[in-house]
Amino acid sequence: MTRAELKQKRLNEENEKIEELKGKQITEDQKNWFRSTLQWKEFRDSFENAGVKKFKNGKEKPIKAVDPFTLNPLKKGWQLHHCDLDSRNYTNLIKEHFLALNPNSHSFLHWAFTQMCKDKGFIKRFEDALYMMYELNEGKDVKDFK
Fold first, then answer.
1. What pLDDT digit, counting tens, does each position of 34-82 carry?
2. How far, in Å, CA of 28 to CA of 36, rounded?
3. Are 80 and 100 a contacting pair, CB within 8 Å?
4. How far apart are CA 69 and CA 24, in angstroms?
5. Nearest C-alpha neighbor of 37 from the set 19, 15, 20
6. Residue 77: what pLDDT?
7. Interval 87-98: pLDDT, tens
8. Which contiguous run of DSSP H or E holds residue 126?
9. What is the CA 42 to chain-centroid distance, rounded?
């Protein structure tokens, strides 16, 4: 078999297994397996670049996608966050239900979401604290005080 045929065979086998998982509660092991599939890897890769910069000489360079919170380019180790946390929807690859995040943003998002689920007022109090710090420090960053 050629490489292309082997890849197609693997893709067909993965797709059959993915179809069996659709709409079912899945385990962490099954989530890990799903993230190793060609379908997931191609889907994930589609988030890495925001477009292409074209130069006058005809050359092109991909424009790196950015973390939506920090607006910094995605760095090595960036993560694709499932916004829909119901494991029955884990294999539904709807682009609008995902966020490409740098690792710190991803960890922070999970932490903040957990706090918000416990207490809806958390976000307002957190925002108030951030604005108070910003005003007291005249917009200077922590780094400016070292």
1. 999 999 999 999 999 888 888 899 899 888 899 999 999 999 999 999 9
2. 13
3. yes
4. 32
5. 15
6. 94
7. 999 999 999 999
8. helix 122-136
9. 14
- The answer to whether the beta carbons of residues 114 and 85 sit under 8 Å apart is no
Q: Which amino acid is at 95?
A: K
Instruction: Give the rounded percent of residues in the chain with a pLDDT score beyond 70.
Output: 99
Contact between residue 24 and residue 88 where contact means Cβ atoms under 8 Å apart: yes
The token duo for 66 is: 């950015």
Tokens of 5: 């045929």
CA distance 43 to 95: 8
d(CA 61, CA 69): 24
In this structure, which amino acid lies at residue 96?
E
Q: How far apart are CA 93 and CA 95, in angstroms?
A: 6
